[in-house]
Amino acid sequence: MKNIRTTRIPCFRRWNRKGWSVFASLHRRVTIGVLSVGMSILLLATQGASAQNADTAAVLRTMRIDEVGITGSQSSPTRNALSQTPLFDRKAQAAAPLQTMEAALRLAPSVDIRERGGRGAQADISIRGGSFDQTMVLLNGIDFTDARTGHQSHALPVDLDCISSVELVDGLPGVGAYAGAVNIRTAPLRPTYLRFEGAGGQHGYAYANLSGAVTAKRFSVLGAASYRRSDGYRHNTDFDNTNAFVRATYDAVRAGFFDFQAGWQRRSFGSNGFYAAYNPDQWERTSTALASLRWLKTAGRFAFGASASYRKNLDRYDWTRGEAMNRHATDNVGVRAWGDAKWAGGVTSLGGDYTFNHIYSTNLGEPLAVTHGDYTRAKARHTGNLWLRHAVAWRQIDAAASAGVSLTPYGQSALWSLSAGWRPAEGVHLSAGASQSMRLPTFTDLYYTSPAQINNLDLVPEHAVTYCLGVDYRKRCWNVSLQTYYRAGRDIIDWVWREELGDKWHSEQSSRLDTFGAELSAGYAVERGFLRRLTASYGYTTTDRRTDAITQSAMDFLRHKASLSAEVHFLRRFTLALTASVYDRNGSYTDYPVPGDPSVKTVRDYEPYFLLDGRLAWEKGVCRLYVDAQNITDTRYCDLGGLPLPGAWVTGGVTLTFGR
Fold it and tell me: Global pTM?
């Protein structure tokens, strides 16, 4: 009998008649992800539960069943997103020299980050040759885009340690995402933990962050608060930022799944040349409060969902620091509802959304009969979308189509999208799609007037049709991706120089703009050894503008962008991460070499530049020490209108993480 070899077979001694009972029997953590295109469920038995593979518009769902921790996701149907391109992944880039979301997105080939100051003091996000006003910004799938100006859209009260990933949602038809949408997803580092980070360095830089999470059965809450400041790297570039954010989820057995998030942010910064390059004494302060609640419920083959959101933004701008010139108060309210039905022919979705935008201002909107505090003008508008979507998956093929209508103050517009994918071999995915998109003029486009600018109340929405082709390969530790796109745009809004109007900029839309681009990225990643991660990417963009007008920003796109990142581990506890990037921007700008004197000026072309950043870190137990060096080569460069950005900047910090 001693020579008889036996095999242990799992045996179920008790049946709970629950949908999750089989998982409880495994005594392992199980990750459940939802892929919206393939309509498939991914089950991964892992020791550390995570939701990194969740759909980009997913809601984090955490629950503990006996000894099994399950982290899954429930997707919220959109108007049919063609593709989801990863821009940042916290787990993969944990060792990288990144301290702000702007620094993280700067390396992505799809995104153009144009900073006006250091450490994310003020920056614009553009996608694939578009402008900052043509980018929709989502936080956990909720649209928080600001209706006054795209300058404020990504000013969200979330620090990098709470951001699990950022994705580009391409091909989102209807109002808002003319060039695409950036979705920022938050998630706890661990189910239950407490984390502190403190840092300091050159130019009076200081940063403190306290964050943590608690998970108990069907309830989970993530909270964070931070403060960041600097004396500035040149005259009047000081800043201080304060963030506070909380996200709570609860899975009620009968009522459904609830997801709540709220945050508050306050920023103030010296704006040396930010909005008028010759004026070194500008200053700005903004504050943002936002909140949203989402509900999801599944009943057999049917699924229902609804969400409501609110964002308030206050802005004070001083032409001369200490003397208020413009004040704005913007309110953005959104609601959405949808339903899914699974049947033999696939999944059919029906839904709609509504958005209300309102602004009080000292110079934007229609004159008020009675002033509202400091505000003498106001304006409101209502927009909405209704859509029908169907998705189907058969063997290695998936396809989806949607159709609907956008309702705006400018009338009705049809919205549609088509997408298809094919997996001819293991690890290979081919995709293709087309979609219609549009964006409404912002309140700034319509009403902003200054001694050098003239507004235009006759503006109408921009429209575009975008075509995409892509191929992705993932196998073991390697990944390669090639994405191409062509966007045919019309009625493009920009500020155009008009001599006949007295040498002033005029807000108008007299042109069409066709944009073509290609993005290639490749990566290698392992969990052991000396070389842990190596990634490279390249992005190319070109346009064919059908007008001879002199414009302010439409032609200032990144023609070439390349980056290389490497991460090595040595001496057991040390990590060294380096990122190198090259940028070549199209277009020119007016340079004012004498501060405060607009009469002395020259026109210069944007010049290519090279940036090298690095981080050296040591980690043991709960403690991690690091030293960051940004712009190691001390490159002199600018992203916008000749505004010099920081040279070499060294900081150091410590993080303490307790929990499990």
Answer: 0.88
